[in-house]
Structure to design on (339 residues):
């Protein structure tokens, strides 16, 4: 009941805001799957199948003035854990920020906003509804943070772009400690086809423990589709203990056969044992070096409605104790629509 009241209040707030005399836009989209588990390390999960709605987003964007803009985004998502008792869509505030364009090339943003780790990479990838980008999928970083950021371009052609952020490192939740995150990102777009990006951050996890992430991305897009290469390294340091490193390489290819048909293939190679793994919608065991392969065919029934049959497979390398988990594979028919 409490969740329903929360969702009603948020929706009512959005509708009231739309009625105000401000240049604004309301948008929404959703995606989910019909899933079928083909193979799993857990026998009770094999042959599980059914429909699930993974995400629903409702967004209100407002131009308060020529220089001030704001966004409020409500997300509702499934828990995504097999065997969980939480089966309803849970609403929460995904974005809530204000942006001040104090210069034609520079802006400052305050509030719950996209973290710098993979926001640009995810947009270039274009298939978040099919699967998360690597450092999101393996829970290395969150997609959101409450903080203060400075973003802009070094040149009028906006080929050399930057972003810096100081945040809570608590995602979209409230802050309850004194530890923070600082991050930076530099993006080079020599023309409309190419994108090069390097980024990094430093997080204080506790008084004695820190995490740093360095990442590089290169992508090319053309009439035929797009390709992207991504490499990153997380290092966790803790007083009195050896450093823990997690290196990852990922590549994807999207091919456009026609306006109605395209295909995507992606391969992730974890060069070190996973620190976190994943237990939502796709089972990935932590503590092992894993390989992830995904292939799908996108059928664009309408510019705002796509259906995509796809398969996802996880395989592992033997650990130091000689243990290798069984592979995980899952067939999906993914659906995505904008409304």
């Amino acid at each position: 009941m409490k969740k329903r009241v929360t969702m009603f209040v948020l929706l009512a707030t959005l509708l009231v805001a739309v009625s105000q005399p401000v240049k604004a836009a309301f948008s929404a989209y959703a995606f989910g799957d019909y899933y079928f588990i083909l193979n799993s390390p857990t026998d009770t999960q094999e042959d599980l199948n059914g429909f699930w709605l993974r995400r629903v987003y409702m967004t209100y964007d407002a131009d308060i003035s020529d220089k001030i803009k704001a966004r409020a985004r409500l997300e509702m998502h499934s828990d995504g854990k097999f065997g969980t008792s939480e089966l309803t869509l849970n609403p929460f505030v995904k974005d809530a920020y204000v942006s001040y364009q104090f210069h034609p090339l520079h802006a400052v943003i305050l509030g719950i906003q996209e973290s710098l780790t993979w926001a640009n990479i995810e947009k270039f990838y274009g298939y978040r509804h099919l699967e998360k980008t690597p450092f999101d999928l393996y829970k290395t970083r969150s997609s959101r943070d409450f903080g203060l950021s400075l973003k802009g371009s070094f040149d009028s052609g906006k080929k050399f772009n930057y972003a810096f952020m100081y945040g809570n490192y608590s995602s979209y939740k409230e802050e309850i400690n004194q530890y923070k995150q600082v991050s930076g990102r530099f993006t080079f777009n020599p023309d409309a086809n190419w994108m090069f990006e390097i980024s990094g951050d430093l997080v204080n996890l506790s008084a004695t423990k820190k995490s740093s992430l360095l990442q590089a991305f290169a992508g090319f897009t053309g009439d035929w589709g797009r390709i992207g290469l991504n490499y990153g390294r997380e290092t966790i340091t803790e007083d009195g203990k050896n450093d823990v490193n997690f290196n990852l390489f990922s590549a994807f290819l999207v091919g456009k056969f026609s306006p109605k048909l395209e295909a995507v293939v992606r391969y992730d190679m974890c060069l070190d044992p996973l620190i976190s793994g994943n237990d939502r919608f796709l089972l990935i065991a932590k503590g092992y070096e894993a390989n992830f392969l995904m292939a799908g065919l996108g059928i664009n029934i309408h510019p705002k409605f796509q259906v995509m049959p796809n398969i996802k497979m996880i395989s592992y390398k033997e650990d130091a104790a000689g243990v290798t988990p069984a592979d995980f594979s899952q067939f999906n028919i993914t659906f995505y629509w904008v409304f």
